[in-house]
From TrEMBL:
This is ABC transporter ATP-binding protein. InterPro entries: AAA+_ATPase (IPR003593), ABC_transporter-like_ATP-bd (IPR003439), ABC_transporter-like_CS (IPR017871), ABC_transpr_LolD-like (IPR015854), MacB-like_ATP-bd (IPR017911), P-loop_NTPase (IPR027417). It holds the Pfam family ABC_tran. Keywords: ATP-binding, Nucleotide-binding, Transport. PANTHER family: ABC TRANSPORTER ABCH.1, IMPORT ATP-BINDING PROTEIN. The keyword ATP-binding applies. It comes from the Archaea. Residues 16-253 form the ABC transporter domain. It comes from Natronoglomus mannanivorans. GO terms for molecular function: ATP binding. The keyword Transport applies.
Length: 255
């Protein structure tokens, strides 16, 4: 599947759209994680989602990532409704169209960096030599061309996250989802990872990122604020931190 072409010149394709989605968990008593949220991501957009604990951030990401389905409402990817897909069809969609970057890296400890990156390629009919070549290209892209045969235990936290980003890009996904991608990193390393996300966005990637850090969220084009399972505000940022000349602490830089 690929993102459909816009219908008219200048029109932007919608990559994923949630319409009036509701998701309730029954944990002794009902917990309304999402209560009528509608949100769409346009091709090439970079959206950050913020909100207090329990606001529905992770639930929304799980719906967009086909890890869960709503109780009510619809989720469409590339104009195709995925709400009624079988579990196996959703799994294939996840493997071919969606790349995931997690806070805890989720790398296989017994595999090398290159082997971790090739894992998602099982969803495609790619011979081993081509998988290895693509893994090398992606690891070079994230600055780890000299770490192909290193195990995760031989890499720093920032390097592990770079491997995770390379793995997320293995199948040229339509959508890149990042769940607190700097949460386990120090401030300097986290800033380097966000610089990489900005480069991916500049290359045309569509990114949805969950974060609780304002400084991290400001790398996105817009910030979606969730409160108690509802969409409270959509704040247009348009990469203000990168575009305004401010440094990573938020103060104004000199010209």
């Amino acid at each position: 599947m690929s993102v459909h072409e816009p219908g008219t010149p200048g029109e932007t394709a919608t990559v994923v759209a949630a319409t009036d989605v509701r998701r309730t968990y029954h944990l002794g008593e009902p917990v309304h994680a999402l209560d009528g949220v509608s949100l769409s991501l346009e091709e090439g957009s970079f959206t950050a989602v913020m909100g207090p604990s329990g606001s529905g951030k992770s639930t929304l990401m799980n719906l967009f990532g086909c890890l869960d389905t709503p109780d009510e409402g619809t989720v469409e990817i590339d104009g195709r409704s995925v709400t009624a897909l079988s579990g196996s069809d959703r799994a294939r969609l996840r493997g071919t169209e969606i790349g995931f970057v997690f806070q805890t890296f989720n790398l296989m400890p017994r595999l090398t960096a290159a082997e971790n990156v090739t894992m998602p390629m099982v969803f495609h009919d790619v011979v081993d030599e081509d998988r290895r070549a693509r893994a090398r290209t992606l690891l070079e892209r994230v600055g780890l061309g000299d770490r192909l045969d290193h195990a995760p235990s031989e890499l720093s936290g920032g390097q592990r996250q770079r491997v995770a980003i390379a793995r997320a890009l293995a199948n040229e996904p339509t959508l890149l989802l990042a769940d607190e991608p700097t949460g386990n990193l120090d401030t300097e390393t986290g800033a380097e990872i966000m610089d990489l996300f900005r480069e991916l966005h500049d290359d045309g990637r569509t990114i949805l990122m969950v974060t609780h850090e304002r400084a991290i969220a400001e790398h996105a084009d817009r910030i979606v604020h969730l409160v108690d399972g509802t969409l409270d505000e959509i704040e247009e940022v348009r990469g203000s931190k990168a575009a305004s000349g401010r440094d990573r602490s938020g103060s104004e830089g000199s010209e």
